[in-house]
Amino acid sequence: MSSSAKGQKIDMGKAVKMVERRLLSGKPIALPTVSPIPTSPIRRRTRSTGNVAEPLVSGPLNVSLNSAKTTISPEQLAAAATFSPKNGKLALELDKKLGDALRANAREYSSPVRTPRIEIVNHTTPTVVPSEDSVGVDDDKLASEAAKAITGNRNVVLTPKPVTPGHHHGGGPEDGREGSRRPDQRRL
Asked: pTM for the whole thing?
């Protein structure tokens, strides 16, 4: 994509009057011109992006899930945002970083999934601890609701989403949080 070159445009109002006055003179008529500000794809793109990007980062996004409330900062919103062409305009898309930011800001938005495990009780007795489902946030629903809210009241209300073992975000030993363990991992 390249910027438009500066050009000239005939000033139609002045040109009509000039032609009316000098048409029968038999001499060439120099038409008056103006130099318009070029509108390039880059300029249109910047304007389109600004119409969405500026509201996106104009303040925090308030998120409620049952009684839990938190905010997602403008920096976190910007990190989750991308723009892509849609119907001749640039459309905002929010990715999973938005859900990650929500979970980082408020741990109560998701409880860890626990897979079934065997624990050794009193150093001798194996005990089976059943799996426990969890509650989480639907990242796609969060992104969709957030995209609508950024140009409105900046509030998103979510319904908890059940998460079953094997289908969760975070909560595993690899991210430092209590959560699911493979059956061959012993809890100490």
From this structure: 0.53
